[in-house]
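Reminder to self: tokens first, then the designed residues, so the page reads top to bottom the way the pipeline ran.
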């Protein structure tokens, strides 16, 4: 049987305006660019690192 991959849902709760360029680019890399937009992503160390870089701008739901 195929293993079910773990996912994480990331929702942008604060604007990227006025933030450092690398934080704005990280939001875009996560597929976010507007407040209240959500993406469900595979839970990998790379995605976790990106979330950590913008943890003050996003809300994370495990699942």
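Designed residues (63 positions):
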């Amino acid at each position: 049987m195929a293993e079910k991959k773990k996912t994480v849902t990331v929702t942008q709760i604060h604007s990227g305006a006025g933030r450092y360029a690398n934080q704005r680019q990280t939001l875009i890399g996560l597929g976010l660019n507007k407040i209240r937009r959500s993406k469900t992503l595979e839970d990998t160390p790379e995605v976790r690192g990106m979330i950590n870089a913008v943890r003050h701008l996003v809300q994370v739901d495990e699942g």
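Residues 7-62 form a domain with the Ribosomal Protein L30; Chain: A, fold (CATH 3.30.1390.20).
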